[in-house]
C-alpha cells in the first residue's frame, strides 16, 4: 500500500526546510512588525500598503461626498421659520407650557428662589439672571427697533408681511416696581417673578365667552381682548394659607397682540409679572402658576399650562434681632 507523501509544498519546496525554528513570541512579534528578510511591515510590502491607502482614500472620499450631497438636499427642504413637524400629534403638541424667570441655568434642577432682602449676596444671582434675560429687550438699538413696530390693540403678529409687535418690557417693569433700580423687588423683600408662555408656532389664545372665565382670573380677565391671564396660588393647603398678597402686571395677563410666536430677529417674547407683595418670612412656599385661555389645558403631571417654583424669604438681621429681643421679653414675663 502506497503512502502519500505530504512533506512538500505545492511548488515542490520541502516543508521541513522552510519551517522556521521557534524563536519565541516576542521575537515573532518583532518579525511581524518588520520583516527585514521579506521587506514587510505588519505583514505588507510597501506596494501593498500604497495600494490599500489609495483604495481607502478613494472609498472615504466617495462616502464623504455622498453624505455631503444628501445633507445639502436635506437642508434645502427645511424651512428656517418653523420646524418640519409641529402641532397636534407631534412631541411639540398644541398646548403651551410655562416658564419663569429668574431661572438659574447653572442650577437647572433647582426651582427655589431663596434670599434675604438685606443681603445682596443671597439675591445677586437672581438679579443678574433677570438682567441677562431682559438685555435682549433693549430697543435702544436702532437696528433692532427697525425690525419691530408699535401695535395698537387691534393689531397682532398674524398680519402677513408686517414686522412683529414690539413688547415694551421696560415700561411694564417700571409700572410694577420691578425695574433694575429696585433690584427687581428683591431688596425690599417683594420678589418679582416673570412668567412666560412656551413658544408654539401658530398658537394664539382663544378667548373665553362672557361670564365663563375661571374664578381664578374673574375680574381681571378681559373677554374682549382675549389675553392670556395668569394666576398663582400655593400648591398645597399650607402654601395657600402662607402665600400672602400677590399682584399681577398687567392685570389681564400676557397681551394677545404678541401672539403667535414669530421666528424673526426682531420678535421678543411677551411676559407677565407676579409680585409677592407680602410674602411670609422664613416660611417656604410652593407656588403653582397657571395660564388661562380657552385653549390652554392644565396638566400637573406633564406641567402643561403651568409652572412650579418655591419662594423662601429669609429674615433680615434686624428681624432676627427683634425676634431675639421679643424672646427675651417673653422669658422675663414667664419668670415673673
Characterization of the model:
Helices cover 29% and strands 15% of the residues. With 336 residues, it is an alpha+beta fold. The chain folds into two domains: 66 residues; 224 residues, Immunoglobulin-like (Sandwich), CATH 2.60.40. The strands form three sheets. A four-stranded antiparallel beta sheet has the order 3-5-8-7. It has a four-stranded mixed beta sheet with strand order 4-10-9-6. The chain is extended, with a radius of gyration of 36 Å.
Number of helices: 8
Mean pLDDT over the full residue set: 84
Order of helices and strands: HHEEHEEHHHEEHEEEEH
Helix/strand/pairing category? alpha+beta
Separation of termini? 130 Å
Work out the strand percent.
5-15%
- In CATH, the topology of the largest domain is named Immunoglobulin-like
